[in-house]
Design brief:
The protein is an all-alpha fold. It has eight helices and no strands. Helix 1 packs across helix 2, helix 1 crosses helix 6 and helix 6 crosses helix 8.
Length: 169
């Protein structure tokens, strides 16, 4: 299991960060998923696809955390202009705006966006990982993109139903 964690840990941490929006919470989320995986490791590894299994645990654990803690209110004003750096690249500004907008999605919507666009999973794979139908993936993804457009209208030109720009990666 330690070889798996060494090889795939950074990718799992990146996905967890996109789900939580916080590095420390992401580390906790990955650790919780790996703790749940440990007693089943031999069986899962023998099945041949431990990463899918641990990612499913990761997404479900994230949703469970969100349900237990309830909805969080994230008050925010427009992003402040950084002091002394008036010529910020458009890409950096869009990255910040997109990150803030992702942080204001529900856990399920964020999971859909991360799986579909960051991890480039198919609708079928996403449905299997989250334990829902392909139709649910399609409708939730559509709603999540619409919410992102509403939260950050300046990003509407970037957010289509088929791709999230490289800015989010």
């Amino acid at each position: 299991m330690s070889e798996f964690v060494a090889a795939r840990g950074p990718a799992l941490l990146r996905s967890a960060f996109l789900l939580t929006g916080d590095r420390h919470l992401a580390e906790d989320l990955v650790q919780a998923a790996l703790v749940k995986l440990a007693p089943r490791w031999r069986r899962v590894a023998a099945g041949g696809d431990p990463e899918s299994y641990v990612r499913k645990i990761l997404y479900h654990e994230h949703l469970n955390w969100w349900k237990r803690r309830g909805r969080h209110v994230h008050p925010s004003a427009d992003p402040p202009e950084p002091a002394g750096h008036p010529d910020i690249a458009d890409r950096a500004v869009r990255t910040i705006l997109l990150g803030q907008a992702l942080g204001r999605l529900t856990a399920k919507q964020r999971a859909m966006i991360v799986l579909r666009f960051y991890e480039d999973r198919s609708e079928t794979e996403t449905a299997r990982l989250l334990g829902c139908s392909v139709g649910t993936v399609k409708s939730q993804t559509h709603r999540a993109l619409a919410r992102l457009r509403a939260l950050e209208p300046g990003l509407a030109d970037l957010l289509t139903d088929t791709e999230i720009p490289e800015v989010a990666r």
